[in-house]
Amino acid sequence: MAWTKYQLFLAGLMLTTGSLNTLSAKWADMFSAKGCRDDPEHQFAHPFVQAVGMFLGELSCIVVFYILLCCDRRSPEPKMNPGQSFNPLLFFPPAMCDMTATSIMYVALNMTSASSFQMLRGAVIIFTGLLSVAFLGRRLVPSQWLGILTTILGLVIVGLSDFFSGHKDDTHKLSDIITGDLLIIMAQIIVSVQMVLEEKFVYKHDVHPLRAVGIEGFFGFFVLSLLLIPMYFIHVGDFAGNPRGVLEDALDAFCQIGHKPLILLALLGNTVSIAFFNFAGISVTKEISATTRMVLDSLRTLVIWAVSLALGWEQFQGLQVLGFMVLLVGTALYNGLHRPLLARIPCCAAMVNTEEEDSPGETERLLGDGRVQNADES
Fold it and tell me: Is 243 exposed, middle or buried (0-12, 13-18, 19+ CB in 10 A)?
C-alpha cells in the first residue's frame, strides 16, 4: 500500500533530524575559538555541555506531549491515550543510564569520525539481546543469535577500518580513534541496561513514549547541569581537551560560544533535532510500522557517512563500506526484517512461522525508543 503524504513527511523528518543530530554534534566539535582567558584558540571540546543541550531537547518532548494532548481533547472524538498515573521516579534509574551513556558518547565523538560513531552504536543489539536473556527471561530465536554474531563481525570490520585510517588521519591520533571506538561500545552496554530497566519497570505502566522521553530528559538535564559544578574542579589532564585540564569547563564553553556564535547554532541544531527525532520516530512507529522505523534508523548512518565524506570531515575507507553492510545485515536479522522475504519461499515458510511464535515482538520495545542512542543517539 502506498504511503500518504503525511507518512512520507514523517519518514523524511525522522531521517533528516536523526542525521542532523549526530552531524550537528560533530560540527560543534570541529570549531576552534578563544576561551575566557588569554589562551590561544582551542578546539570546542565540551561533551558534557553538549549532553546538557541534548537533554534539553528530550525535555521539550514533554511540552510536545501536552500540546498534542490538549489538541486531541478539543477534537470531537479524542483518540490519544495519555496513559495511567505513575511515579516519575521510576524513570530516574534509566535516565541516569541515558545521562552516563550520552556523556560517554559525546566524549567519544571528539575522538573519532561521525560515521564510525554512528555505525558502532549498532553494538547495542548485542548487549540488549544478552541482557534481555539474562534479566528478562527472553528466548532469542536462531536468527537473532545469528544477527548478534553478524553484528560482532561488522563491529570488528569497522574497528579495523578505523585502525588503518588512523595512520593517515590528520584530525585524530590513532590512540584517540581506538579509545573513542571503545568508549562508544562501552556506552552501548549502559544503553542496553537502560532499555532493560525501561522494559522491566516502566513500560508496564502504559506511559506515552513522548512523556517518557520528556521525564527522562528532565532528570538528565537537572542532574547533569548540577554535575557541571564539580566537573569544573576535577583535573584530568590532557584527556579533557580544555586549557584548564578539568573534566568540563562550562565557562570556557560559553566564552567560546561568545567568540564564535556559530557554535551556538551547532548546539541548537543538536537540541532541536533530538526533539523532532523523538517525535518523528514515535509517529513513524504509530503511522507506518516499527520495522520502517528501524530501516530509517539504519539509513541515517548512510546519510551521516555520505555528508561527512562530502564535507571532507573524513576519508573514504573501503573496509567501512563492508563493515556497514555487515552491520546492516546483523540488524536486519536481529529485528526479523528477513522474515517477509523468507515467508515467500515455501520451504522456509514453516521456519518463519516458528520464529514469529517464539519472538513475540519484544524488539520493538527494546530497540525502538528513538533516542540519541542514544545517544546521539545521541
Answer: middle
Query: What's the chain's average pLDDT?
Result: 83
CA–CA dist 348, 251 (Å, integer): 61
Q: Which helix (H) or strand (E) holds 42?
A: strand 42-43
Strand partners, 207: 83
**pLDDT tens track for 33-54:** 998 877 788 899 999 999 999 9
What are φ and ψ of residue 37, in 5° steps?
-110, -165
> C-alpha cell of 282?
514515535
Separation CA 229–CA 153 (nearest Å): 41
Radius of gyration of the chain (CA): 21
Strand partners, 104: none
3-state secondary structure of 138: coil
Chain centroid offset of residue 160 CA = 22
pLDDT recorded at residue 261: 93
Q: For residue 372, what are the β-bridge partners?
A: 375
First and final C-alpha spacing in the chain: 32
Cβ neighbours of residue 57 closer than 8 Å, sequence gap 6 or more: 217, 270, 271, 272, 273, 274, 275, 278
